[in-house]
Known about the structure:
Chain A is mainly beta. Chain A has no helices and eleven strands.
Amino acid sequence: EPxxxxxxxxxxxxxxxxxxxxxxxxxxxxxxYWYRQILGQKVEFxxxxxxxxxxxxxxxxxxxxxxxxxxGSNFTLKIRSTKLExxxxxxxxxxxxxxxxxxxxxxxxxxx
Amino acid sequence: DxxxxxxxxSLSVQEGRISILNCDYTNSMFDYFLxxxxxxxxxxxxxxxxxxxxxxxxxxxxxVFLNKSAKHLSLHIVPSQPGxxxxxxxxxxxxxxxHASGGSYIPTFGRGTSLIVHP
Lengths: 112, 119
């Protein structure tokens, strides 16, 4: 069964550094998402991507964040100048149709 | 502002019994509701959903009930099995009312309820 994959599984970075989180969505999916979950809190929407552009973003997704789909398979989230409060699990998701979201296993980002 | 609330952080149930997970919402624009299950070290997995035009949806051992007037939904698992032990997230979306066709329908998640099913 096809699945969403994410790399790395755990990323440790120093405050102020840039990180790129990588995702390979399911191949025939059209909608792509990033979410995050700070420890003990709810899953929060960051951004959605459709037809090669951002279709929706939350208040969390400010200029510090960017997304790219550089080729036909990868979907990346870049976080510039990381802060301690960026430490969280970051989930990528994809879907073929609206309402459908298949989540990856997540990347745990630890900012020290 | 918690638009989707899961007031019970945890629930413990004996194997074979019914598990009932509750969820309340405040946004009357929500018209589609979903339940996700999450195991440790994995992402959330879609479990079951219900549209606001229905009050019940059943899929095997899982049934979701929606009470629109009370802005409340619940997930029933019968019979509960140890493998059901996971965190369950309630989510809601208003996609049919505010987004153009072809856009994304972003669910708002609750904080989750950790279900433990004891053998």
